[in-house]
Amino acid sequence: MGGRLTRVFRTFNVESRARREISKEKPTPAPRHPTSRLGELADRPEIQAEIYKKDDRLLTFLKDVYVDSRDPPVRVKGGGGEHLPCKQEEKRLTKLGHLGDLDVEKVPKGKISIVEALMVLNNHKLHPQIWTAEKIAVEYSLELKEVNSLLEFFIPFTVQEFPKETKKAIKPT
Q1: Using CA atoms, how far apart are residues 105 and 113, in angstroms rounded to an integer?
Q2: What is the C-alpha R_g of the chain?
Q3: Which tens digits make up the pLDDT trace of 127-138?
Q4: Distances (CA, A) of 7 to 16, 19, 145, 151
Q5: Which of the residues in the chain have pLDDT under 50?
Q6: pLDDT value at residue 93
Q7: According to the model, what pLDDT value does residue 84 have?
Q8: Residue 162: C-alpha distances to residues 71, 157, 159, 165 (Å)
Q9: How far is 160 from 155, CA to CA, in rounded Å?
Q10: Which residues have C-beta within 8 Å of that of residue 49, sequence separation ≥ 6?
Q11: Closest by alpha carbon to 105, among 96, 118, 116, 114?
Q12: Alpha carbon distance 40, 32 (integer Å)
């Protein structure tokens, strides 16, 4: 509804409004600043002759100027621009190897792969007395604080099957 209403006002009496705008007198322009008149002065022939005239005094000054510049020698860094890591990162071999080409072979110390993380979580869930946080930290070169956080906040999925009696107890609505 709003679009129709604005269209009506927009198209109402368009021709007479256009004629009224066209018939208005144009406003007189503001006076120009004296610096904007330089283009008019440059067209005069005596000013053009002054611009293109050679001044011998200025030419002698220009000939006396001598500029000597030297670039500093370019220093080439040794090594041919190869990107070498600043610190070699210690890596350890993974505990798994049954995936073949898909298996991650080396993992930086202080980190574990996803498969190893799932294995750790599952082992701790099944045998918490054997797989303690301290043993996992030593076995996988991790910090104890990170292992405790991993065991506390990441819980592997469990499949729960409900007995048939509870299925019957649910009544369709």
Answers
A1: 10
A2: 44
A3: 999 999 999 999
A4: 17, 20, 69, 67
A5: none
A6: 63
A7: 55
A8: 83, 16, 10, 8
A9: 14
A10: none
A11: 96
A12: 12
